[in-house]
Design brief:
With 295 residues, this protein is of the alpha/beta class. It has 3 domains: 5-83, Winged helix-like DNA-binding domain superfamily/Winged helix DNA-binding domain (Arc Repressor Mutant, subunit A), CATH 1.10.10.10; 87-161 and 273-294, 3-Layer(aba) Sandwich (D-Maltodextrin-Binding Protein, domain 2); 169-267, 3-Layer(aba) Sandwich (D-Maltodextrin-Binding Protein, domain 2), CATH 3.40.190.10. It is 42% helix and 23% strand. The chain is built from 10 helices and 14 strands. A hairpin with a 4-residue loop joins strand 1 and strand 2 (57-59). Helix 1 (5-17) packs across helix 2 and helix 1 packs across helix 4 (61-85). The radius of gyration is 24 Å and the shape is elongated.
């Protein structure tokens, strides 16, 4: 089937804005031209791509399936255009990175500062998601690369992984749990205390649930949150014992909490840059990855 690419382009903008008028504005064509293009595409595919009524436009099931294929293709073309427009002197360009709030705050901020100082005309765009959701962004071509915790079960063979930092997860507690200070505690003993964890759709949660499972234990957190920052704050006010990466434990924090000594050895984890193998990074993207990998 030979269908004009422009029809798919129109479909992409209608599907991502869910508006014929907004799509016409982005494409610099009339709304009637947008409508006619969608009708032609639907006729060629012999299916309905949008549900239309006077108040809103939504994707049909077939429309959602088509968008899953069209979106990465459109993003790939846009990335190619951006790469061509870049100069080797890095006088212009854009890097789109996916990373969690925690990784941005504790790991990437110094790199952002250093890179911006060296290449002020390169625009850095960051989308914050959990490490698991960041992989989805990469699969859809919505980011150039991601910085994620590893292991990450969402990463597949189509992706290249460059590990640049190893870290240790640490249980921390406030002063109300002073009986645990300077004492080795087993994971089984920890279950007697209120445990504060990240929510289950995160690499950290998957990791710690597996650690307890491997030791024949069932983990049932008192509270599950979406933010490492909140886990730290709740530990500081003695609401429970939190699990956090050791790179979050700055000196001023250790005045309010202390790390627990655990009998069982917790496996170390890593941080990595992950990119698609079949999509080359822009010159600016490669330079930023060099900044990270060299430390």
């Amino acid at each position: 089937m030979n269908i004009n690419f422009e029809l798919y382009k129109v479909f992409y903008y209608v599907a991502t804005t869910l508006s014929f008028s907004k799509a016409s504005t982005k494409l610099f064509i009339s709304q009637s031209a947008v409508s006619q293009s969608i009708k032609t595409l639907e006729k060629n595919l012999n299916t309905t791509l949008f549900n239309r009524n006077t108040k809103r436009v939504t994707l049909t099931h077939e429309g959602e399936l088509l968008l899953q294929h069209v979106e990465p293709a459109i993003n790939l073309i846009h990335n190619g255009e951006n790469n061509i427009m870049e100069t080797k002197a890095l006088n212009q360009g854009k890097i789109h990175i996916g990373a969690s709030d925690t990784i941005c705050k504790y790991i990437l901020l110094p790199y952002f500062k250093k890179f911006h100082s060296r290449y002020p005309n390169i625009h850095l765009q960051v989308t914050n998601r959990t490490s698991i959701r960041c992989v989805d962004l990469l699969k859809q071509g919505n980011v150039d690369f991601i910085v994620t915790n590893i292991p990450n079960n969402n990463i597949d063979d189509s992706m290249e992984v460059i590990e640049f930092l190893e870290f240790q997860d640490v249980f921390i507690a406030g002063n109300d749990f002073a009986e645990l200070r300077n004492k080795f505690v087993s994971l089984k003993e920890l279950l007697k205390y209120p445990l504060l964890m990240l929510e289950k759709n995160t690499t950290t949660s998957q990791y710690i649930y597996n650690v307890f499972k491997d030791n024949g234990l069932s983990l049932s957190p008192e509270i599950e949150l979406t933010s490492i920052e909140l886990l730290v704050e709740l530990a500081k006010i003695n609401l429970g014992i939190s699990l956090v990466p050791d790179y979050c434990l700055q000196d001023n924090l250790l005045e309010d909490v202390f790390p627990l000594e655990i009998n069982e050895k917790l496996p170390r984890r890593g941080l990595a840059v992950v990119m698609k193998r079949d999509i080359p990074l822009s010159i600016a993207g490669k330079k930023f990855v060099e900044f990270i990998s060299r430390g």
